[in-house]
Design goal:
The chain has 118 residues and is α/β, with parallel strands linked by helices. It has one domain. 43% of the residues lie in helices and 22% in strands. Strand 2 and strand 3 form a beta hairpin.
Length: 118
Amino acid sequence: MVIETKHYAGHLSGHPNDEYWRQRLGKEEEGRLIYSPLRQNAGHCAAVRAVTSQACLDVEILNRVVLTGRASVTPALQASVRTPNALADELRHNCGEASGLMMGLWQRIVRVAHHTKR
């Protein structure tokens, strides 16, 4: 699993397949284009896939984007991004009992994300 975290505010719109998404802050009409975190992380996933394939490891590489800020997203993006808590739930559900070390590290990331919201 390759995790891209983004700390955004405002409202994000676009489609999971788009190269760019639009971020609007407050009552902005136009906002600004931001590079799709899904596309960015797809590049990271490709790099991990290249390394694991060289090592003859047949592993599934999962692309996960976690939004730690207060941004809202359009319905089209909702299934493609996660909150920190949703990712923790996914790890618990799909990985059975995640190792204490892995969950401890994730909890540290979540604490830092919550601290920077203030």
